[in-house]
Write a structure and sequence with these properties.
The chain contains nine helices and eight strands. It is of the alpha/beta class. It has a five-stranded parallel sheet, sandwiched between helices. Strands 3-4-5 form a three-stranded antiparallel sheet. The radius of gyration is 17 Å and the shape is globular. 40% of the residues are buried.
Length: 220
């Protein structure tokens, strides 16, 4: 029987990092739902779609085939057969994902795929509405968060390590804007599920958070 761990939280809270580590420790499949929305966002960017026009966005959804695959222990994201695992990690793709995920047809397309994956195997799934919408009956729900300043610092350091230009103030403003978009959208807004456990990671390391989530999972 498959088991499900849902990890929700705002942008930059470390959801993907923790979810990957927990999945590896428990032998579960890691499902990065944010990557799926980023892939849709990248597709719409490439198509030159006006994302303020929901009808135009909907008209381009059928031409986007998003698929996840595990290769050499790493999750890969494919868009229409192309490996876009790296291409979707830009700030622009992130903003596009946050904006277009507010549209019901976009969510219907990806939520259906996410639920199918979870029905077939034990998963650790992270996103914005996993515990509230995608996997409402998950065995364990975690709401992972951190201060805006801490999340911006992590992103800033990540970009600098990659040798990319980074503006701390701009990153912090971008994260705050995405928080607002995610919590105020009409369809499946970001919120903590009533039965989710809150973990503020502002002063916690990756190993500490991972160990905490695994302990919670094993006690379930």
């Amino acid at each position: 029987m498959s088991r499900q761990i849902a990890i929700d939280g705002p942008a930059g809270a470390g959801k993907s990092t923790i979810a990957k580590a927990v999945a590896a420790k428990l032998g579960y499949i890691y499902v990065d739902t944010g990557a799926m929305y980023r892939a849709i966002g990248l597709h719409l960017m490439r198509e030159g779609v006006n994302t303020d026009d929901e009808a135009e966005v909907n008209a381009h959804l059928d031409s986007a085939d998003v698929r996840l695959a595990m290769e050499d222990g790493m999750q890969k994201v494919y868009l229409n057969g192309e490996d876009v695992t790296t291409a979707i990690r830009t700030e622009e793709a992130g903003m596009m994902a946050s904006k277009t995920s507010a549209y019901s047809k976009v969510r219907e397309k990806l939520v259906s795929l996410q639920q199918k994956i979870a029905a077939d195997c034990s998963v650790v799934m992270d996103g914005r509405d996993i515990g509230t919408v995608v996997l409402p009956h998950a065995d364990l729900k975690i709401f992972l968060t951190a201060s805006v300043e801490e999340r911006a610092r992590r992103r800033f350091n990540e970009l600098k390590k990659k040798g990319q230009q980074a503006d701390f103030q701009a990153i912090m403003e971008d994260i705050a804007k995405r928080d607002y978009q995610d919590t105020h959208r009409e369809i499946s807004p970001l919120r903590q599920a009533d039965d989710a456990i809150l973990l503020d990671t502002s002063d916690m390391g990756i190993e500490e958070v991972t160990a905490k989530v695994i302990a919670l999972a094993e006690n379930k």
